[in-house]
Design goal:
alpha/beta; Spore Coat Polysaccharide Biosynthesis Protein SpsA, Chain A; two-stranded antiparallel ribbon; 7 helices; globular; binds cytidine-5'-monophosphate
Length: 222
């Protein structure tokens, strides 16, 4: 089956103290988004890439490709007002009856194992969602009250959320709701059961300046 990686880099990264969107911050010699694309190309050089970018960053992307002699040429889709609309725009460029890895550009540390787990499960069942168990104690804050939660029942959700393309395209077209923060929830809203697979702990979503320091250490080590 043909494979696509839909890399969502359509956000403005307002939670990080930086003039440029976080997906373009250079660490270990490359912008984050290029590290991310490399991970999938290394996993399977035949993967086709769709990159979702804010319209305002498209010329910057081309400049960065020149600067870094970046030879992978993804198809470009325009970012939307939320991640949901960015994914929706990207899915329009993807063939039916294929597999799509939908991945946050700001997760440059996804492992081959995680990608393989996602691929195997989505190929046989239609969907897969990489998760990791929480290691801290957890509390639910509800109004003025708070109480402990059973952490053995709580998992952190990562990307690449992986799907047979016919299913996920149909779900994105059909849903009347647009405030989902991930793709599995869109498919689940159509009544489909979501399959969990093991992610990798280093596969953090870069959100804060501290995450950048951690990611830089891992990327330099690699
Ligand atoms: O904002 P957050 O960290 O949840 O974003 C996760 C990913 O979704 C990032 O790679 C970001 O660029 C992308 N995104 C997007 N379009 C938006 C908002 C976020 O592609 N409108």
């Amino acid at each position: 089956m043909k494979k696509f990686a839909l890399i969502v880099a359509g956000g403005s990264g307002t939670r990080i103290n930086s003039d440029i969107p976080k997906q373009f911050i250079e660490i270990a010699g490359l912008p984050l988004v290029m590290h991310t694309i490399h991970n999938f190309a290394k996993f399977d050089p035949k993967i086709e890439f769709i990159l979702v970018l804010p319209e305002s960053q498209i010329s910057n992307w081309h400049l960065l490709c020149k600067k870094h002699h970046f030879s992978i040429k993804p198809k470009i889709a325009f970012g939307g007002v939320t991640r949901f609309y960015s994914v929706k725009n990207g899915l329009k460029l993807i063939d039916d009856e294929s597999i799509v890895f939908i991945h946050d550009a700001v997760r440059p540390l996804v492992s081959d194992n995680t990608i393989q787990n996602c691929l195997d499960c989505a190929t046989t069942t239609g969907n897969s969602l990489p998760v990791i168990p929480v290691t801290d104690s957890v509390r639910i804050v509800d109004g003025g009250n708070n109480h402990p939660a059973d952490r053995s029942k709580i998992y952190l959700v990562q990307t690449p959320q992986t799907f047979q393309t016919t299913l996920i395209k149909k779900a994105y077209r059909a849903t009347p709701v647009d405030n989902f923060t991930d793709d599995a929830s869109v498919l689940e809203s159509m009544g489909v059961t979501i399959n969990l697979v093991e992610g990798n702990r280093e596969n953090i979503k870069i959100t804060t300046p501290a995450d950048l320091i951690i990611a830089e250490a891992f990327l330099k080590r690699n």
